[in-house]
Each structure stands twice: as structure tokens, then as C-alpha cells.
């Protein structure tokens, strides 16, 4: 006789483990299946985000920035350093320790909330049954009243630069270098490419980012994107747009290997660059391999994502899909909130999710963050709006911290003054944009933000001043218009 649960979750990344915990909190008998193994072959929760994504990349970003700051910026504070060096293996070890701490933390949360943790693979069968195969190959068919699919995503591979996990790597391999490459190529100048490129650029690599698109960060507000490109270029990243990679060849030079990359530039001319390492960061795709039986009843859309409605219900009754498997941005926090929504709806609540207010962040230094509509979207939709911008150069706290690059931009409806979007490149942009996201969730106007009292001296004052600038009322810089 098969084991019966109220809910089975397949996948324990940020979407899956949050869904499982919330289901259990609501009194539902819940199991969560995870196929990820650690280096010892033991099952571990957290999915891509905790194991080889969000968390480890941020650990390396912070370590590399501390080295960069000590090497290049301590002198401005009157601090001198001698014989500064970076031990890459120690840095990677710290990253691994953080990953272990957080993944073991999920195991503890599962125990505390009485979530049954199952390590192995899960496949959705017809009638809300799940084929579970553990690491030893033992197979069992589980039954559930509800199934939540949260299998996540994997990097997109391209034939012209096939990953060999040695010289040519994907985003996972880029977290495991045991030394700083002298020359590093990055295919793709999106979020992941810029973050990983920044890590190794700070540590001394000569980094070249080859981006096929003719616009830098095309999905972001273009004023902020242009400012970001200017800042990152000044830091040493060589960002080349309209460059399409056409091939790659690994060659042996003495005792070392290198990769020769061929590509066409924006004029259509053939070019060649040679790198010690090459990172392929051209996007991610939903991971549905062996996840669905042919008669499961779950349908995919034209992009290979699982088709769901606004409440994350699939075409199969009682089956839901969340996170990177479904439409929308592949963001950990988006998946987590979908997990909460689905859990609560299974429990009979009427929870819905506001997809219009989801922050998006690039963790370079300075950070780049946005929420809501950008200026290009508002123009395309014919919405009249007002703009307020304010540079960190005019913020005392930013100057004191030697963090003066960047700006805050706020967009508000021309008639109602309701905040439609916020876009920031600068220090702590991720946290600052969240302030505006909270305001937007409560329907705040730019005037509302402008009338609030912000602490001084803080970086948040840039948000305050940008809100004031929407109507030409900024205090600490000349206004373009006054009313």
C-alpha cells in the first residue's frame, strides 16, 4: 500500500521548501522530495539557490569586494596595507561553509515543522500519484491530495561553447575556480554574467563579457542601464554588445589549457579572443526532465515552462507548479511567495500574489535594483508619468562611505501621482528599492514618500530626494522644474 500525504512537493529550492514548510504550518501532512546530493553523496536541500546559485555567489561577491576595497580604496581612508593577497581556496571554503550552514538549516526547519524529507527523484504520474526513487534505487509510488511541482531550472547550454567543466564552465563551475584566471571570458552580460564577472575582475582577472544583444540590460530602465554600464566599465569589465559567439576551441599551451573563442562584432566582422577560462551565462530553462509522466495531465507552454493560471494551478486538478518552472521572472523570492500562496490556497484560504511588485536585483557593486514599470514600458503603454532622479553624489552618507556612484529614479503617474516604478544603481540598492516596493504595495504617491521623515545621514535619503524631485521639490540639488 502506498504512502498517502495531503501534499507532496517535488523540489526543495526556495519555492519548494517554503511551500512545504507553509503547508505543514497549516496542518497538512507534507513530504518534500529532493534529488540534490552533496560532495559525499548525501541528500541536501536548498536547490540551485542555496547550493550553487544565490547564496554562494553572494558569498564570493562579498569576499571579492572586501579584497578589492582593501587593495584599491583603503588608502582614501588613511589605511595602508602591505603584502595584500587573496587565498582563493580559503575564499571558496568560506563559501562552502555558508552553503552547508544554510542547507542544514532547512533540514532543521523541516524537522521542526514535521515535513517528511525524502531524498531521491520524484515523477508526477496520473491521478496525483508520485513515483519516488531513492538514492539506492528503491522505488515507491506515493499518493497525495495535492502535488506542488518546484523542480527549478538549469543553465542553458549552447553548442558553440559546450561546457566541459574545466576550461568552459557554466555558472556552477564559475563558483569553484581554485585560482584567479588571468583572462576570463563571459558569454552573456546579464545578471549572472555580470555578477560572476565582477567576482573575478575584482580579484585580478581581465574580464571580457560578450553579449549578443545590442542593448545592455535590455529589460531594465535604460537610463539606469547606461549608468550601470558606465560604472562597471570604469571598474574594468570589458562589456561588448552585439557580439555573437560562433565557436570555441580548447587548446593546450604548455601545461595549461586555454579556449579560443570566435565571434562576430557589431559590424559583423569575425573576431577571436583567447581566455584561460570561459563562463557560459546565456540564461536558464525550466527543469522538467523526467518530472512528468505522459499521462500526468500537466501541459507545457511554447517556452517549455509548465502552464499555470494566475494561482499557479496546472491543467491537472490538484497539481500546482511554482518558481522557475512557470511563467514570470526566475527569482528565488518570487518562487517563495508562490509557494506560500499555493500552500494557503490548498488550505482553503483566498491568498493571491501581486506580480506587479516584485523587486529585481543585480548584486554587482554597486547593486542594481528595480521594482514596477520602467520608463520604456510606460512610454510603450502610453501612460503619462513624471520622473524624479537623485544622485548618490549628493548624499552625505554615501560620500562618507566612499560610495558615491549611482542614482535613484522614481516614476509616478502624471495624474494620480501613484508610484509606478523605482530604479536604483548604487550602494544598498536592493534594500533601498524594497522601501519603495512597500510604499507601492500600499498605493503610495510620490508625494507620500516626499512627506515622510527619513533619517539623516542615511542612504535612504536618496529615495526621499528622488520622490521630492518628481515634482521639482528636491532640496539638495537644483531642480529641473519647480511648482
TrEMBL record:
The keyword Chaperone does not apply. The active site is a redox-active disulfide bond. One of its GO terms (biological process) is 2-oxoglutarate metabolic process. This is Dihydrolipoyl dehydrogenase. It catalyses: N(6)-[(R)-dihydrolipoyl]-L-lysyl-[protein] + NAD(+) = N(6)-[(R)-lipoyl]-L-lysyl-[protein] + NADH + H(+). GO terms for molecular function: dihydrolipoyl dehydrogenase (NADH) activity; flavin adenine dinucleotide binding. PROSITE patterns: PYRIDINE_REDOX_1. Belongs to the class-I pyridine nucleotide-disulfide oxidoreductase family. Binds 1 FAD per subunit. Its EC number is 1.8.1.4.
Amino acid at each position: 500500500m502506498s504512502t498517502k500525504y495531503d501534499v507532496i512537493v517535488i523540489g526543495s529550492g526556495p519555492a519548494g521548501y517554503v511551500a512545504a514548510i507553509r503547508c505543514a504550518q497549516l496542518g497538512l501532512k507534507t513530504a518534500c522530495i529532493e534529488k540534490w546530493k552533496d560532495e559525499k553523496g548525501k541528500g541536501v536541500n536548498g536547490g540551485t539557490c542555496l547550493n550553487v546559485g544565490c547564496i554562494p555567489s553572494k558569498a564570493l561577491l562579498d569576499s571579492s569586494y572586501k579584497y578589492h576595497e582593501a587593495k584599491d580604496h583603503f588608502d582614501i581612508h588613511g589605511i595602508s596595507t602591505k603584502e595584500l593577497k587573496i587565498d582563493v581556496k580559503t575564499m571558496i571554503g568560506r563559501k562552502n561553509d555558508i552553503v552547508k550552514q544554510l542547507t542544514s538549516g532547512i533540514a532543521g526547519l523541516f524537522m521542526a515543522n514535521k515535513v517528511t524529507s525524502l531524498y531521491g527523484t520524484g515523477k508526477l504520474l496520473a491521478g496525483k500519484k508520485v513515483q519516488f526513487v531513492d538514492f539506492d534505487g528503491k522505488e515507491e509510488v506515493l499518493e497525495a491530495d495535492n502535488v506542488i511541482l518546484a523542480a527549478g531550472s538549469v543553465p542553458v547550454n549552447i553548442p558553440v561553447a559546450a561546457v566541459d567543466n574545466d576550461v568552459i564552465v557554466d555558472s556552477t563551475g564559475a563558483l569553484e575556480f581554485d585560482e584567479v584566471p588571468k583572462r576570463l571570458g563571459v558569454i552573456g552580460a546579464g545578471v549572472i554574467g555580470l555578477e560572476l564577472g565582477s567576482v573575478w575582475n575584482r580579484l585580478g582577472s581581465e574580464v571580457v563579457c560578450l553579449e549578443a544583444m545590442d542593448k545592455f540590460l535590455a529589460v531594465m530602465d535604460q537610463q539606469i542601464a547606461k549608468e550601470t554600464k558606465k560604472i562597471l566599465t570604469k571598474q574594468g569589465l570589458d562589456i561588448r554588445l552585439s557580439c555573437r559567439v560562433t565557436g570555441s576551441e580548447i587548446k593546450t599551451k604548455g601545461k595549461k589549457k586555454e579556449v579560443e573563442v570566435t565571434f562576430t562584432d557589431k559590424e559583423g566582422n569575425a573576431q577571436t579572443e583567447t581566455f584561460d577560462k570561459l563562463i557560459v551565462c546565456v540564461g536558464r530553462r525550466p527543469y522538467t526532465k523526467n518530472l512528468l509522466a505522459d499521462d500526468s495531465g500537466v501541459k507545457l507552454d511554447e517556452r517549455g515552462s509548465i502552464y499555470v493560471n494566475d494561482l499557479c494551478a496546472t491543467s491537472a486538478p490538484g497539481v500546482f507548479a511554482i518558481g522557475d518552472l512557470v511563467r514570470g521572472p526566475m527569482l528565488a523570492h518570487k518562487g517563495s511567495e508562490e509557494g506560500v500562496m499555493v500552500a494557503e490556497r490548498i488550505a482553503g484560504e483566498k491568498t493571491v500574489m501581486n506580480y506587479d511588485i516584485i523587486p529585481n536585483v543585480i548584486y554587482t557593486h554597486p547593486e542594481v535594483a528595480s521594482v514596477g514599470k520602467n520608463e520604456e514600458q510606460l512610454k510603450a503603454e502610453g501612460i503619462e508619468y513624471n520622473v524624479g532622479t537623485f544622485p548618490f553624489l549628493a548624499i552625505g552618507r554615501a560620500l562618507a562611505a566612499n560610495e558615491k556612484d549611482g542614482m535613484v529614479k522614481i516614476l509616478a503617474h502624471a495624474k494620480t501621482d501613484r508610484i509606478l516604478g523605482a530604479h536604483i544603481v548604487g550602494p544598498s540598492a536592493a534594500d533601498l528599492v524594497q522601501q519603495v516596493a512597500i510604499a507601492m504595495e500600499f498605493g503610495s504617491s510620490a508625494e507620500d514618500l516626499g512627506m515622510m521623515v527619513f533619517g539623516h545621514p542615511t542612504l535612504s535619503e536618496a529615495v526621499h530626494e528622488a520622490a521630492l524631485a518628481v515634482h521639482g521639490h528636491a532640496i539638495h540639488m537644483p531642480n529641473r522644474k519647480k511648482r
